[in-house]
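Request: Not sure, any thoughts?
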Amino acid sequence: MKNELLWEPNPKRVENTSLFEFIQHVNTKYEENFDSFENLHKWSVENRNFFWDEVWNFFNVIGEKGDHPYLEPENSLPGTKFFPRGKLNYAENMLKKNDNDIAITFWSEDKIKKKLSWYQLKNQVSAIANYFKKKGVKKGDRVAAYLPNVPETIIFMLASSSIGAIFSSASPDFGVEGVLDRFGQIEPKVLVTTDGYNFNGKEINITEKVEKVVNSLRSVKDVVLVPLLNSAQIFSSNKAIIYQDLLDNYKSERLDFIKFKLDHPLYIMFSSGTTGKPKCIVHSAGGVLLKHLVEVGLHSNAREKKKFFYFTTCGWMMWNWLVSSLMLNTTICLYDGSPFYPNSDILWTYAEEEKFNFFGTSAKYIDALSKFKNKISEKFELENLETIGSTGSPLVHESFDYVYNNIKKDIHLASLSGGTDIVGCFVGGNPISPVYRGEIQGAILGMDVHVFDDNGNSINNKQGELVCVKSFPTMPIEFWRDNEGKYHKAYFDKYKNVWNHGDYIIKTETHGFIIFGRSDATLNPGGVRIGTAEIYRQVEKIDEVIESLVIGQNWKNDTRLILFVVLRENIQLSGELIKIIKDQLRTGASPRHVPSIVIQTPEIPKTKSGKIVELAVRDLVNGKEIKNASALANPESLDFYRNLKI
């Protein structure tokens, strides 16, 4: 059954995209006649040497390609090197522009607003790079940022990559243990941090946490402080230098970019770490550059004069994704704080005032706006807004309806899915194809995505595992100091020479995809696999329910479903409401989706990026203890589940 068509771009809009221009570029050079995204995608996975070469050419990458072949070996997962004899510098490609146009706009709730021109950005990066050199930071050293989503975080990343150091970041809402679990593994030489941040109208001072982190990280030789609160207590460590002093003392007219092989490390990123210490995932500069040119440049239409926004922290991969928009000479818009302070319109006020072209957020944020019936379109024109991006969890059919009915009718709604593992996407939107209700539009260019059954057969219109059968640039270089083969085990154990991502998914007849949740959280009552998102979609249609979480409990040699619901204020779970929930699941999904038990909960545990943590709750209910609760945004929420008797 085909889902409802919700949006289709008109010819003029199609012609005003980089993707359309890229298709014409390929048609001319290779004497093709591609007239659709599907044609181009097929070519991109069947002719990957040509495709990645043309991505380099089309976007005028600064660097040296080296000799053919551009993929070697052609298809090894992992193992393929892209442009193996080439060289480039990531920061050099990010800082091509050097004028008084605005590079970065920043809002911190309703308290701080500032803008940085390309000229100012480059000058500050130059000073930081000079500081690094004077302090002996060199190729391969780690620079760690314990910072909010502020311009300075980007500046330190660019300075770091300009000299070949490896950058890593964590947001300041992480506790001491969470920071040490991450940075302690990678042993940074420099730590950049702050005195605090604003959230929900309050100033959150973190100087005590910072002291403990610095005292515990023995590898750290130098500390840079970016004061955001101007608190009386700044920092007692004699290692510390204030950011403005650093700019004044290390000002430099020169910014040299050292070119490295494309597989030189750029980032160390971290898994959520809810089942043990976070995995330290090492990503390459060339891989990130190539992949993000495709996703941000072709799929999302980032280009000069456009304004790009993603609501994210520095602990989520969407920060890295957003920042890459600078490669396209795009203005990026940062926000730090609560998306609901001083009210739920704050991000849309920002979008209206700054004339966003791309507004990115999480599916949970859209769900929340929908639950509270916020009619954005009645308050804001959003005349410049072309695309809304959504990721973090599956965007349900009803959220598609909400966007088109209550935000903007003529909008490209791009649901995306990928992960920190690839610092990018497997599937997502594109601006020249139709949007169907509840569906991700298709696979990303260059990504040979399939749905596999347990025997490794490619299937359509049936639920299975999301896999990628050909190599791509952002396969991690490695897991940091992985001596136990964890990298291979994480993605390649189930199917040989195939990336198995761990998402439970279906490919539709319109070439789109619908994700039903993580494979490891998939429910299996009576031997029938059920994706958790199938249940959330039905339950959260009910007005009294704000959000929900479902797990499978081991029970009498089978699995029974336990559903937890967060209800609106002053509403208690009654027998009548339980019946409404069960009836909705029975009729909206199937009798197998109906839980054995429904329990009201005060809060659902989530990661720092807002993803619900089914596995932690499942383990607690099944009698296992959680190894790393500090990785959660709200670890205290686990107490409710830990003490349950069911």
User: Anything to note?
Assistant: The radius of gyration is 24 Å.
